[in-house]
Design a protein that fits this description.
Layout (H helix, E strand, L loop, with lengths): L1 H10 L4 H6 L3 H5 L5 H19 L4 H6 L2 H10 L2 H21 L6 H19 L4 H20 L6 H4 L2 H6 L2 H19 L8
Helix pairs in contact: 4-6, 4-7, 6-7, 6-8, 7-8, 7-9, 8-9, 8-12, 9-12
């Protein structure tokens, strides 16, 4: 029963929304998986992502960081979220060292933005210290993204909507907005809206 639960949970990266969308949420709920068990699976998910990072590159590698961020948001595990934010920055530093255009730093930016949103919405009132640390990590990432050109996997450019989104001007504005949000919502600095 536990194995089946893990299989379903993993297939949707711990997202109840995705389980529902795939039509397997009722099947999953019938298994009566505890929050404690889900938390254990979330940590395993993060460990798997860290191992996978050593074996793959490009977009596949960066999207692995959606998994634990999503799982942390769903389970309310701020420690998992903090660990994932640190991993995203570490990965970006590795990407910069490789200096290859194939790397998908745009997906890393999306993972950071997802982490920012979840921390701001779910964690900041109850976990001010780890949220502040996560904010410091995310601010460092957004500052690095500001200094280097953002690259995206070629799949993005096949869709007309992304061609408009991925212009240098729009990305600069978006990163400035992200930095403002981190300072305001995660670090508690009073700033005028940009």
């Amino acid at each position: 029963m536990k194995e089946k639960g893990y299989e379903l949970y993993l297939s949707c990266v711990g997202s109840k929304f995705a389980l529902g969308r795939e039509g397997i949420l009722q099947e999953y709920e019938k298994l009566n998986i505890t929050k404690k068990q889900e938390l254990e699976w979330n940590r395993r998910l993060l460990d798997d992502c860290r191992k996978k990072r050593k074996q793959v590159s490009g977009r596949e590698l960066t999207t692995t960081f959606y998994a634990p961020a999503q799982a942390a948001g769903n389970s309310g595990d701020i420690c998992l979220m903090l660990a994932n934010a640190g991993d995203v920055v570490e990965l970006y530093q590795e990407v910069l060292e490789r200096h290859t255009r194939q790397e998908d730093t745009y997906t890393l930016m999306l993972a950071a933005e997802y982490t920012l949103n979840v921390c701001a919405e779910k964690f900041r009132e109850n976990y001010p210290v780890p949220v502040k640390r996560t904010g410091e990590i995310l601010l460092m990432l957004f500052e690095m993204l500001e200094e280097h050109p953002i690259t995206a996997g070629e799949g993005y450019y096949k869709h007309p909507i992304y061609r408009d989104i991925l212009t240098e001007e729009r990305l600069k504005k978006r990163i400035a907005d992200d930095k403002w949000a981190v300072r305001t919502y995660l670090l508690g600095e009073e700033e005028e809206e940009i």
